[in-house]
Structure of Pantoate kinase:
Amino acid sequence: MTDIEIIVPINISGIWYPIYDYDIRKRGSIGLSLVLNPSILVIPSKKEESKIIFNGNEIHNFPNLEYLRKLGKIQLNIKSEIPLGFGYGMSGAISLAYALASHELYNINLQEALITAHVSEVLSNNGLGDVIAEYYGGGLVYRKKPGAPGYGEVEKISVDWDVICSKPISKESTEILIKTKNENALRYISEFLSNKTLKNFFFLSRKFTEELGFYSPYPNSFRKKGLILRLKECDEGWIKHTPAMNGASVH
Ligand SMILES: Nc1ncnc2c1ncn2[C@@H]1O[C@H](COP(=O)(O)OP(=O)(O)OP(=O)(O)O)[C@@H](O)[C@H]1O
Ligand SMILES: CC(C)(CO)[C@@H](O)C(=O)[O-]
């Protein structure tokens, strides 16, 4: 065990537009997302084998690990209120934690480590824009250029905050979100940029996700993959979110 503790926020995209580039470091998505708490809390340690322990249980078949283990043999002990596989950008958060751990434990070049985290997401079909959003933070984020940290570009958009809650409803694969390109995404992003409010983000994210076949029964909400994100209203049993303004951190 080490004294290092890594904190990584979650990322929930509302609108995304996949962009292919021959250079994997520049592949990703542009879009709008919310970088939020609760974050994951990660204790890394050097070990004989790379391992991801999630709330006490080892995660087997985490495809990102095939790429991440090149950064060094690390065990991550993760504490998380957020489940894996519902659409909270958790695979990106775990990969980013692994990259930051490799820099701390093995002195791996930070930029190389961050690229590996992003590439592990892209090549595993688990995400396009989560790593860069979670690295920089925070709150409402506009990913204006796709790619890994250092290649892509994010802008934090300042908005008046309000109560936001989510409910995980089903575990689903991310692949369909990556392979489907909804051309309206670009129009919705520019509609948001001319009226930058949380309400408008929810309104446009709902339009966008409905066009992909994801429906939410609640007002001021949208469904992203296997979760519902809702503005203003928090029923019992829902997860309460606050903006994670500064992105990932190491303590
Ligand atoms: N017990 C498990 N539950 C969910 N996923 C698991 C589990 N064990 C391994 N996995 C793998 O972890 C990865 C989860 O990544 P996935 O992209 O589906 O989740 P997410 O990060 O929560 O969602 P998104 O990237 O769409 O926001 C998948 O590759 C999945 O196969
Ligand atoms: C593809 C995606 C929606 C999966 O969460 C996300 O990574 C994004 O916005 O690029």
